Amino acid sequence: MDLRSLRHLLTVDGPFASAYFDSSHNTEDAARISELRWRELREQLREQGIDESTLDAMDTAVPGGEPPVGPAGRALVAAGGQVLVDEVLPEPPLSPVTRVSPLPYLLPLTTLPGKGAAHIIVVVDSAGADLRVVDEHGDEARTETVTGREHPLHKVRGGGWAHLRFQHTVEETIRRNIQDVADEITRLTDQLDVGLIVLAGEVQARSGLHRRLPPRCQQIAVETESGGRAGGSDHAALEQEVRRLVDQRTTRHVPDRDPALTVTGLPKCVAAIREANVDTLLLVTSQIQDLAVWMGTEPSQVAVHEEELRGLGMPSITQCRADEALPWAALAVGADVVTVEDELTDGVSALLRHT
Q1: Which pLDDT does position 68 carry in this prediction?
Q2: Taking CA 249 as the corner, what is the angle to CA 323 and CA 147, rounded to the nearest 5 degrees?
Q3: Total domains present in the chain
Q4: What's a Pfam family in this record (predicted)?
Q5: Which residue, of 220, 250, 280, is where some domain finishes?
Q6: 162 CB burial (10 A radius; 0-12, 13-18, 19+)
Q7: Cα–Cα distance for residue pair 211/213, rounded to 1 Å
């Protein structure tokens, strides 16, 4: 599972209750066993201090949905009286996990197969753009056309001051049109929790659009040369490219590690997170589970030593478990998180976006 699909959690205040447990349904009395198992875990969460409204929400969620066939597990993350994550695990955890903490425990979710990413397909030119929103199931959820200012859009040949003023007016019209498209993409991305933005159409228009997107949208945007708004454009090629990009985004794999773009060890990795320079964070669960880091008021402000954040003028600093804080901080900067079996210094490595 790509944790970037859980960006909406960043707006939720803790404490969070996280539970990972066996939900196998392979015996005649499976429902009864599941109920008894949950009662024990519920009591553990209560003893750790979670509020009753959140426990009640988890009570409602546990028996919900179709029971799994055979061995399976369940992952629940809740806060503020709501269940925020409810996932079926392909196999039961080796032992149940219950945590009540300021941050959610998300690391086990990285081993889940990826779901289809909700995505926006944008075909843009100097006059505006056609947008299609596709949900995580591959169903078209919405189509829109952003129509900008139509005149003037084309430069003319000639010279003199009048010519220069006209050229400037054309450029300003195109810039405003592209900005209108960028604003609409940003609105849809925030509203629908989009995980991928595919930019197609005129080269200059899509490049300009990419630059005008806010960082949180730039991080999930990809340009493609397939497709266009003009008649005769190869729509089939665009659809094929979109499917490839969605599959690439949702397939769990460890990217190739370029030594020039790789840092290892907790100090270097948290520094890269603070600079929003992490594309993929690689974590070894067994190595980081006993480590702690410091976090500031912003989720991306993470450090090995408290003094590092005090030097940045953070008004509030909290010590947190590394296996909760690192995925949370990576989520805040739009980085992917992948668990690996390697032996890494401090159990963490980061693939950078740039040197």
Answers
A1: 72
A2: 120
A3: 3
A4: baeRF_family2
A5: 250
A6: exposed
A7: 6
Residues pairing with 132 in the sheet:
121, 143
The residue from 59, 76, 111 where one domain ends is 111
Query: CA 331, 337, 343: angle at the middle one, nearest 5?
Result: 140
**Per-residue pLDDT band at 167 (split at 50, 70, 90):** low
CATH number of the domain encompassing residue 153: 3.30.420.60
What DSSP line would sit under 40-100, residue for residue?
A: HHHHHHHHTT--HHHHHHHHHHTT-SPPPSBS-EEEEEEETTEEEEEEEESS--SS-EEEE
Least confident segment among 26-35, 137-146, 151-160, 268-277? 151-160
Is residue 239 domain-shared with residue 129, that is, in the same domain?
A: yes
Q: Quote the pLDDT of residue 160.
A: 44
H-helix or E-strand spanning residue 318 = strand 318-321
Q: What is the pLDDT of residues 201-230, one digit of tens each?
A: 989 888 999 999 998 888 788 999 887 766
What pTM, to 2 d.p., does this model score?
0.65
The range of the structural domain enclosing residue 326 comes to: 259-352
**Residue tagged 């056609």 (tokens):** 130
pLDDT average, residue stretch 221-244: 80
Confidence of residue 192 (pLDDT cuts 50, 70, 90): confident
